Amino acid sequence: MASMEEDGSVEEKDNNNKKRTKSAIAVAWLTFYNIAMTAGWLVLAMAMMRFYIQKGTHKGLYKSIARTLKFFQTVALVEVGHCAIGIVRTSVIVTGVQVCSRIFMVWFITNSIKQIQNEESVILFLVVWTLTEITRYSFYTFNLLNHLPYFIKWARYNMFIIMYPLGVAGELLTIYAALPFVRKTGMLSMRLPNKYNVSFDYYYFLIIVMLSYIPLFPQLFFHMLRQRRKVLLGEIIVEKDE
Ligand SMILES: CCCCCCCCCCCCC[C@@H](O)CC(=O)SCCNC(=O)CCNC(=O)[C@H](O)C(C)(C)COP(=O)(O)OP(=O)(O)OC[C@H]1O[C@@H](n2cnc3c(N)ncnc32)[C@H](O)[C@@H]1OP(=O)(O)O
């Protein structure tokens, strides 16, 4: 009996150790990931500042940082995986919408339509994303290391109140500026007749994307407001199942 109890406790200890090892691996990975992403967005911030100081204009800025931006924004897809495997307590849907809309902005709008790359709206969302991500990833990093300075926590849960609407404005104005070029060139569209018998009009697709901000953006914004109340004001929030 005693030996069974001992066996049981050994098994339990083993399971606990496994859990601890797994979470230690997760913490190590997340710490590495967040440090790399903070560094990436800092590099982008410095490249943008250097470009503007040297050239005195925003024209050509997007082209000069495009590769770095595409790399770090695309890598953020990993975050959907973090949620899916449960190593961070965030909804896959909320993260998916946030990350996919950014990737769409980068690859299918700004990168694909050269004529809009010098629009002021592009600079607006680039600056807003960069400030947001430096704050967000450094928040996660310091939080994981249990050394979170209050001003980073404060910035993480207050900046979005201004940054989210500004970022959305930059994104929507950029898509709007792209519409005439998309209509004129018929890019990424499929007209009938074709061998697949399928028709797709990227112009109307972009209009649908713009309209989808109306229901989706408030959900992200209110999610952040709830997080803000939870973290800064200590409110207990009962999460609904996904
Ligand atoms: C195919 C075409 C699609 C087109 C769709 C078009 C519709 C688009 C509508 C949407 C528009 C979005 C526009 C947007 O791009 C504009 C901007 O971004 S503007 C700049 C302002 N933006 C922000 O402030 C971004 C805010 N968003 C986020 O922070 C996240 O993306 C979000 C998922 C929304 C929220 O994050 P989360 O729920 O994770 O909140 P917390 O930060 O409070 O964290 C919760 C817990 O998870 C832990 N966590 C999360 N990630 C990590 C990580 N990487 N490392 C470590 N830990 C992490 C975090 O610590 C919390 O843990 P705990 O609760 O235990 O404390």
Automatic annotation (TrEMBL):
It catalyses: a very-long-chain (3R)-3-hydroxyacyl-CoA = a very-long-chain (2E)-enoyl-CoA + H2O; (3R)-hydroxyhexadecanoyl-CoA = (2E)-hexadecenoyl-CoA + H2O. Its EC number is 4.2.1.134. It is found in: Endoplasmic reticulum membrane; Membrane. It is an enzyme of class 4 (lyase). Pathway: Lipid metabolism; fatty acid biosynthesis. Catalyzes the third of the four reactions of the long-chain fatty acids elongation cycle. This endoplasmic reticulum-bound enzymatic process, allows the addition of two carbons to the chain of long- and very long-chain fatty acids/VLCFAs per cycle. This enzyme catalyzes the dehydration of the 3-hydroxyacyl-CoA intermediate into trans-2,3-enoyl-CoA, within each cycle of fatty acid elongation. Thereby, it participates to the production of VLCFAs of different chain lengths that are involved in multiple biological processes as precursors of membrane lipids and lipid mediators. Signal peptide: none annotated. It is a multi-pass membrane protein. GO terms for molecular function: very-long-chain (3R)-3-hydroxyacyl-CoA dehydratase activity. Its main location: endoplasmic reticulum. The chain crosses the membrane at residues 26-53, 92-110, 122-145, 157-182, 202-222. This is Very-long-chain (3R)-3-hydroxyacyl-CoA dehydratase. GO terms for biological process: fatty acid elongation; sphingolipid biosynthetic process; very long-chain fatty acid biosynthetic process. GO terms for cellular component: endoplasmic reticulum membrane. The keyword Lyase applies. It comes from Salmo salar. Belongs to the very long-chain fatty acids dehydratase HACD family.
